[in-house]
Amino acid sequence: MSTVLITGAARGLGLDFTKQYAARGWKVLACARKPGALESVKGDIHHHPLEVTDYAAVKALARKLSGEAIDVLICNAGIGGGRGATEQTLGTLDPEVWRNVFEVNTLAPLMMAEAFADHVARSQQRKLIAISSILGSIANNTGDRYFYRASKTALNMEWSCLSKDLEARGVICVALHPGWVQTDMGGPTATLTIEQSVPAMVKVIDGLKPSDNGRFLQYDGTELPW
Ligand SMILES: NC(=O)c1ccc[n+]([C@@H]2O[C@H](COP(=O)([O-])OP(=O)(O)OC[C@H]3O[C@@H](n4cnc5c(N)ncnc54)[C@H](OP(=O)(O)O)[C@@H]3O)[C@@H](O)[C@H]2O)c1
């Protein structure tokens, strides 16, 4: 039996990752602040309460799960920091929002990766996935949304570093862009439904090989420019 750990597992993309892996008979370590919708999902689902920026709790969970081999770890939890002209536009920048966005989107995934690297390295599949965003691509930048973009750019650099540092242990580190998806974050006008994005990402994760280590891909497997 394979095991996946997902952060932000009770809502949006994380909830659908939970449903997809549970439906395939995987053991799902579903990390979420509150169980919420997880309670109605059928399968081998284990809810672990986790605020991802509580690093003592992250380490404690890693110790609690020290017997687990985690085939796929998905650092999914994230925040947008507001998309309106008042939050992340030049002339209105609020440093406190920057700190929050970086804490959740950039620091927390790295602390998860550090805490759970051994669990992933001892598994069969050894896949460490960051849910990033095309908005973090410097090559693709159109400006605005400073905090969110920069937090995902920095997340990408972390995953690039992890791909070097964990390569000798056979861990495949990949940053994945889900597309623009109709979640609370993506909003109702997003171009993709959750059902178009998450199963496609699961397929991409399924197919990852050691030669994919260090890549930045979108939900359908297309390579993205850094
Ligand atoms: N939707 C898009 O179009 C899109 C595009 C590119 C990238 N992404 C990325 O995809 C990921 C998931 O986004 P989504 O669209 O599913 O957003 P969402 O519907 O807003 O869900 C965000 C998830 O992150 C969790 N979360 C936020 N802060 C957390 C914290 N401090 N501790 C623990 N959990 C926390 C939330 O948990 P609670 O329920 O407890 O708040 C929720 O499960 C994010 O990393 C996002 O940046 C999304």
What's this, in brief?
Helices cover 37% and strands 15% of the residues.
Count of distinct strands: 7
Radius of gyration: 16 Å
Shape: globular
Please summarize the sheet with the most strands: 7 strands, parallel
CATH superfamily: NAD(P)-binding Rossmann-like Domain
In the predicted model, the low-confidence regions spanning at least 5 consecutive residues are none
The name of the CATH architecture is 3-Layer(aba) Sandwich
Number of helices: 5
Strand content: 15-25%
The CATH class label is: Alpha Beta
Structural class: alpha/beta
Number of domains: 1
Distance between the termini: 35 Å
CATH-derived topology? Rossmann fold
What layout of secondary structure does this protein have?
Elements: E1 3-7, H1 12-23, E2 27-32, E3 45-49, H2 55-64, E4 72-75, H3 95-121, E5 127-131, H4 146-165, E6 172-177, H5 194-207, E7 215-218
Parallel strand pairs: 1-2, 1-4, 2-3, 4-5, 5-6, 6-7
Helix pairs in contact: 1-5, 2-3, 3-4
The structure holds NADP nicotinamide-adenine-dinucleotide phosphate.
Residues 7-8, 10-14, 32-34, 51-53, 76-79, 104, 131, 133, 177-178, 180-181, 183-186, 190 line the site of NADP nicotinamide-adenine-dinucleotide phosphate.
